[in-house]
Design brief:
This protein is mainly beta. It is built from 19 helices and 74 strands.
Length: 1371
């Protein structure tokens, strides 16, 4: 079903979004009702009640600005509280005081004001305009960085004298037309662009190319700005397109506009799939705050004194530098031009400017752009040779096509209509004459890929965009571009707007308020509602966009509000990895579109801080530094976890002028101090404190409440100097990228499906790595052609930008990468052939005479996608060789094996490696057979046992990577386990009362005989409860895991399909929320319920417990003994004779800390995977914990001291003796060995034991959602020894490991290495025999690294590990 893209109004408190929050919202969208009133020489505006309005007002179909204090109509330059500059008409031409937009000449300079969108009317200071012109940093049209100037041209910057001095209102101008759209949210509703003709203006060729063939009806506007909540457009009104007016072909000068401009819209995000809204805008000003007085305002320049705006990145294609062919339309001549009839346009089949010979440097193309129809409607020839079958599409529709020229100087392109061959047009391509006849050639003569290298954001390297099914994108899905907007019209993306209020949290991460994080979405129509009801999973991302909680508890509901229907997501606080203050993001997936959107939210520390001016800077002069200490009201620390990209600092001068300060240049956090620099360290050396008087300093750091203080600058000469230590710290900080994302208020914006990397849509960390990128040749040349033709869309522009940003293009090759050729050699040969003239050099011809490079390709690459983003990092061998076999049978029901079939029998016989779910173990090398390959039948059977469902849930997607040798490309198959998910309707069994057990019946929609019946409870994985007195979740455990002392566990009943929550969880009456998670179920089951006041206290079993002031008594004694393992070897066991079974089970389940001979032990994850300094409580055959298994790290022969601390129990010290068991005759043999050792020490050293002969290393990164650390780890498996010998070798007590000469310390577990540097530990195979080591990656550098392993009685074992890049300790 086709789903139309739609836009909806914001679900936002209007006061948090409007430019002037004090202005009332109009109840209807249109001109504000009222009248203009003359006050002396000024104008003011009064509403129907006679009240004088202030701030923004929309009337006479245009925006005006009334002084916030006097209410007088403003003209000329005006700066709004958000820092944007606007210009209001200064001429008394019937449009005095109206906001202008587009290109405007003002006192000799041509300025550019955003014509539409959320910045409508605001001055763009730098970079390039949407129609391709350069700005000089002050918003003026420039060429080569120099502003264009024409003396006397344009409006005056201050009010022009009115010769008539009449009493007509500012808007008295007959015949003016305008279009209405959006709302600014000021005194009046509605908006417009006064003075703009309602006639459809002449379109650029790019627009005509995109729209030709659609009929004469103008398309309906889509994707426009949001309306205020609950405020529909006026009857009969349609929103005007937000698309800015493009420059006219043939003119190098910007097209002028005398419009009053469209509305600056409410806060919203940009493109679909981009991060919903950049954080960090200052809060709207309160009533009365504005710019300087009107008199002063008239003389202000559009830039703050001494400040320059930082320019945006220039477009790939520069606009032409020639003078305009015709005079641009200005306020003086536009109306006259419109009255004159235009000459009828000559019939033409092609757009001439886009139908020509295009030089790309490494290839020449002839392009044809059809005015109507597509390539299927025409035949093409060049110099008499039919090339129709050799052309390829540049855009999706085929309205623009390309032909790779086979000669250097083709003369003419001829286009003939297929329907009527009398309709023919010729285009002159070049003036030269070719020596060779034109051949049609073939697209197959071109290369397929270019391998390049360049800087890549770390974020883009390790985080790939997703397709509609949520999978990582790898390859571009198409090589053509959408110029007509068809993709957007047919997109499944659903767009809506949201509102999220910051949440105060306490020191434990729990919300101070009960609601927790609440995100509200607008769901006004059926599409929005289907999207919201389809939300089935949410991931929590940190500020660097890494998933930190893949399965949080959340709930969804739809409510009717005064602003319309809202979809509400509630996210309890206090959940895993989101207990700290700062900015987080919800990555939301909906089954309706199978795409994800991202919404930011902020957790704010509730602690209040104040700024205290230091004595050393208590008497600051102009330009001097001022220091402040930031002090918590209860001694809390400030800023220990601050990132430099989360700061927003505003300085208000005594004159009222505001500056947004920049990190390092204008302020700096040095130690526990905040430093404000009176003189900036930017290039201009701007003096921030250049005025005498009282300043206001305002800080907003993400995760903290706003800080505000005042200080005074005194007259006098400055003598302050910057300390050397501070300068050193500033220099170090300059190397880090700053990206402002501080939150100043509630976050809000617009979301849409998908994600685009590389453009900063989700925000990058700013850290770059050297990357290898593969450009699809067809995709790249299409993008470069559109860029040359000056009709590039955003996607093609981003591909071109990615190409220009590469350091170098290394190799060029055909599909399969059998032979790689140096790109520079090919480019040189192409240019030489071109200079020689005649026949063009084709790539297939070049490969016949050139020698391929002696290079097999890089280890890993990323493909450039059709929007300029980068696909998932993959091994190059996936693209090298013949294509792998295609398989069927990639979907199976839960519990079944996969039976894969292919017709390529030879491929099956060549398989030498099978790897599931990204694991490094090759199934072909494992002892237990978990697959069957039958080449005769053409089948590969993959057993269910091949998967580790502890790492990835059974239901869902899995991967199988197949390696079939050098002849074939490696391939990764997507395997899908499906299951019918059980639908449940939870309800209370009886009344819920405080002090009593609460039972929740999980009423299944399935019947007992159905396969899905009981599936949810069987796969129950996590239970969480939110209590009335907290917004954070509490994880609940079963009796066997969490113990029963607090009577606060849960029990399940599979027969009754219910879960019982024990009475200790309900000490208070009130509203509770239960979240149940089950493996294979993406969305948690949410059940809110109320508990009434009960009569009994919730003690154990409903009985009152005696207070435990000192804790219960621990077991009286303990014994330590050695036990034999079922896998061979021995382990130590601590038992507690005389202790009752149930009491001991509770005690061992409550252990918080265990020390052996002063060494603290950690609790192991499993008794079978223990390290030397770990312990694990073991259960008997009935599930009761009765003993403790101890590692031998701190154990010593003789007496040992063991201290145990358990929750609710007294701390107990146990003294135990330990003597390792010796077999009969061991003592005598030991004595003989000692004598032999002392006697023949040198001989003993000469007969050292054998060590491994080989090592295979693999770099592993923490699995998001599984591993809590952030540091990479090398896992090394050894070969060359029998498994038993290798296990014995790695169990040596004095095992030592060093990397590049740095000695590593031994860690307790591999999982700890994700937190530690310079550490190692041993690793196991599936039979728990040690077969390798895991190493922290911090000591490895790019290239070859030396690793040495030493153990007493063994030879030294040295091997090397080659690293692709350096891994820092902060990775």
């Amino acid at each position: 079903m086709r789903r139309e893209t739609w836009r909806a109004a914001a679900v936002i408190l209007a006061a948090s979004l409007v430019l002037q929050p004090t202005a009332a919202l109009s109840a209807e969208r249109g001109n504000t009702k009222g009248r203009w009133e003359k006050e002396g020489k000024s104008w003011s505006y009064r509403n129907e009640k006679g009240e004088k309005l202030r701030g923004w007002v929309f009337t006479d179909n245009a925006w005006h600005y009334l002084d916030p204090e006097s209410g007088k109509l403003c003209s000329g330059w005006q700066k709004t509280p958000d820092g944007s500059w606007y210009f209001f008409n200064t001429a008394h031409d019937g449009r005095f005081g109206q906001m202008l937009s587009g290109w405007q000449w003002i006192e000799g300079y041509c300025y550019y004001f955003h014509p539409a969108g959320e910045k409508s009317g605001a001055l763009q200071l730098s970079g390039k305009t949407e129609d391709g012109y350069e700005l000089d940093g002050q918003g003026r049209w420039a060429e080569g960085g120099i502003a264009k100037y024409e003396e006397g041209r344009g409006l005056r910057r201050t009010e022009a004298s009115d010769p008539a001095e009449n009493s007509a209102s500012p808007a008295s101008f007959e015949g003016r037309k305008s279009a209405v759209r959006g709302t600014r949210g000021g005194s009046g509703g509605g908006s417009g662009s006064s003075g703009r003709s309602s006639k459809r203006e002449e379109k650029t060729e790019k627009e005509q190319i995109g729209e030709s063939g659609k009929g004469s009806k103008e398309p309906e506007s889509k994707g426009q700005g949001a309306a205020e909540p609950g405020s529909p457009l006026p009857e009969g009104k349609k929103e005007e397109s937000a698309k800015p007016e493009a420059k006219k072909p043939g003119s190098a000068e910007p097209e002028m506009s005398h419009s009053g401009g469209t509305e600056p819209e409410m806060k919203k995000s940009g493109s679909a799939g981009a991060e919903a809204e950049k954080l960090g805008r200052a809060e709207p000003e309160s009533k009365g705050q504005s710019t300087a007085e009107p008199e002063a305002r008239e003389s202000e320049s559009p830039l703050p004194e001494g400040k320059k705006e930082e320019g945006t990145k220039p477009e790939a294609k520069k606009p032409g530098s020639t003078e305009p062919e015709t005079e641009p339309k200005t306020p003086e001549n536009k109306a006259k031009e419109e009255e004159q009839p235009s000459e009828p346009e000559k019939q033409s089949l092609l757009f001439e400017k886009q139908s020509r010979l295009v030089h790309l440097g490494f290839s020449d193309y002839v392009t044809a752009a059809f005015r109507s129809g597509t390539i299927s409607d025409y035949s093409l020839s060049v110099d008499g040779t039919d090339i129709t079958d050799s052309v390829r599409k540049v855009d999706d529709d085929g309205k623009i096509v390309k032909w790779e020229s086979t000669v250097v100087s083709p003369k003419r392109l001829t286009v003939t209509s297929r329907e009527d061959d009398s309709k023919r047009e010729e285009i002159l391509l070049s003036g030269g004459g070719q020596r060779e006849s034109v051949e049609a050639g073939s697209p197959e003569d071109a290369p397929d890929y270019i391998l390049a290298r360049g800087r890549v954001l770390k974020y883009d390297r390790y985080t790939a965009p997703h397709d509609k099914e949520g999978r990582d994108r790898v390859l571009p899905s198409r090589t053509t571009f959408d110029l007509s907007g068809t993709r957007a019209e047919n997109s499944d993306s659903v767009t809506t707007e949201y509102y999220v209020k910051p949440v105060l949290i306490d020191e434990n991460g729990a919300g101070v308020e009960k609601d927790g994080v609440t995100a509200k979405f607008r769901v006004d129509n059926e599409e929005q509602e289907k999207w919201f009801r389809g939300i089935d999973s949410i991931r929590i991302l940190n500020s660097q966009n890494w998933p930190i909680n893949r399965n949080p508890s959340f709930s969804t509901e739809i409510k009717d509000t005064k602003h319309g229907k809202n979809g509400i997501i509630k996210l309890p606080t206090g959940q895993s990895n989101m207990r700290s203050n700062g900015v987080y993001k919800m990555n939301i997936h909906s089954s309706y579109t199978d795409e994800t959107v991202t919404v930011p939210f902020e957790l704010v520390k509730k602690a209040n801080f104040s700024m205290k001016q230091r004595v050393e800077t208590a008497n600051p002069k102009r330009g001097e530094r001022i220091q402040f200490e930031i002090v918590g009201e209860n001694g809390e620390s400030f800023g220990n976890e601050l990132r430099i990209d989360s700061m927003r600092v505003i300085l208000k001068k005594p004159s009222g002028k505001k500056l947004e300060l920049h990190y390092i240049d204008d302020f700096f956090n040095f130690g526990g101090l905040f430093n404000l620099y009176g003189t900036s360290s930017n290039e201009e050396k701007t003096v921030n404190t250049d005025e005498i008087g009282v300043y206001t300093l305002e800080l907003k750091y993400s995760g903290y409440q706003k800080l505000k203080t005042q200080f005074e600058v005194y007259p006098g000469e400055s003598f302050a100097k910057t300390e050397k230590a501070e300068e050193s710290a500033k220099r170090a900080a300059r190397g880090r990228t700053v990206q402002a994302d501080a939150v100043s208020a509630a976050t809000s914006g617009k979301i849409s499906g998908g994600r685009k990397s590389g453009s900063g849509s989700l925000g990058g960390s700013g850290q770059y790595v050297d990357g290898r990128m593969v450009f699809n040749y067809d995709l790249l040349t299409n993008a470069l052609i559109l860029n040359e033709l000056e009709i590039a869309n955003q996607d093609s522009h981003d591909v071109v930008q990615r190409w220009f940003d590469t350091t170098e293009a290394d190799y060029i090759y055909k599909d399969g990468a059998e032979k790689l050729y140096r790109f520079t050699d090919y480019l040189d040969a192409f240019k030489k052939a071109r200079i020689a003239g005649g026949r063009s050099l084709r790539f297939t011809g070049y490969t016949e005479q050139a020698e391929a490079a002696d290079y097999a390709g890089p280890a890993e690459v990323q493909n450039v996608l059709e929007d300029g983003s980068l696909g998932r990092l993959t091994e190059f061998k996936f693209y090298k060789g013949e294509k792998a076999a295609e398989f069927t049978g990639t979907t199976a029901e839960k519990g079944e094996d996969f039976l894969l079939s292919t017709e390529n029998r030879e491929y099956l016989s060549s398989i030498r490696g099978l790897y599931v779910d990204g694991q490094s173990q090759n199934l072909l090398n494992e002892y237990q057979k978990r697959f069957e390959i039958d080449p005769e039948k053409g089948t590969l059977k993959l057993f269910r046992t091949a998967f580790n469902f502890n790492l990835r849930p059974e239901v869902g997607e899995h991967t199988l990577r197949i390696d079939a040798g050098e002849k074939y490309r490696a391939v990764e198959l997507k395997l899908l386990y499906t299951a019918v998910l059980e639908e449940l309707s939870p309800e209370l069994s009886g009344e819920a009362e405080s002090g009593k057990d609460v039972t929740v019946s999980l009423k299944s929609q399935s019947s007992p005989g159905d396969r899905s019946y009981g599936d949810f409870l069987k796969n129950l994985s996590r239970v969480e409860l939110v209590s009335p007195d907290q917004s954070g979740t509490r994880t609940l455990y079963t009796k066997s895991v969490g113990g029963e002392s607090g009577n606060d566990y849960y029990e399940t009943d599979s027969e009754k399909q219910s879960i019982t929550l024990k009475a200790g969880l309900f000490r208070k009456a009130g509203d509770y929320e239960l979240y149940l998670h089950a493996e294979g179920y993406p969305k948690p089951l949410h059940f809110p319920f109320s508990v009434k006041e009960g009569k009994e206290d919730p003690g154990e079993g409903g009985k009152t417990e005696e207070p435990e002031t000192e804790g219960k008594a621990a077991p009286e004694k303990a014994e330590l003994s050695e036990k034999k393992s079922i896998f061979g070897g021995a382990y130590q066991q601590l038992s507690f004779p005389g202790a009752e079974r149930e009491n001991l089970n509770e005690y061992l389940g409550k252990i918080q800390k265990l020390e052996l001979n002063g060494t603290e032990y950690r609790k192991a994850f499993s008794a079978l995977q223990m390290e030397e300094n770990e312990f694990y409580p073991e259960s008997d055959g009935y599930g009761y914990k009765q003993t403790i298994r101890l590692g031998s790290g701190a154990l010593q022969d003789g007496e040992n001291s063991i201290r145990i601390q358990a929750e609710g129990y007294q701390t107990k010290d146990f003294l135990v003796r330990f003597e390792k068991k010796k077999a009969e005759g061991d003592e005598d043999r030991d004595k003989e060995k000692e004598k032999e050792k002392d006697k023949n020490k040198e001989q003993d050293s000469a007969v050292e034991k054998e060590v491994p002969t080989g090592a295979e290393a693999e770099l592993l990164r923490p699995r998001q959602g599984y591993d809590s650390g952030t540091k990479p780890v090398y896992e090394v498996r050894f070969t060359g020894l029998e498994s038993e010998e290798l296990d014995q070798y790695l169990r040596s007590r004095d095992l030592k490991v060093s990397v590049n000469g740095m000695e590593y310390r031994k860690s307790q577990s591999r999982s700890y290495l994700y937190h530690e540097d310079s550490s190692f530990t041993t690793i196991f195979d599936q039979k728990y025999r040690k077969n390798g080591i895991a190493l922290s990656a911090n000591a490895f550098h790019k290239g070859e690294n030396s690793v040495t392993v030493e153990a007493e009685g063994y030879r030294s074992f040295a091997f090397s590990v080659t690293a692709e890049e350096e891994e820092s300790a902060e990775s």
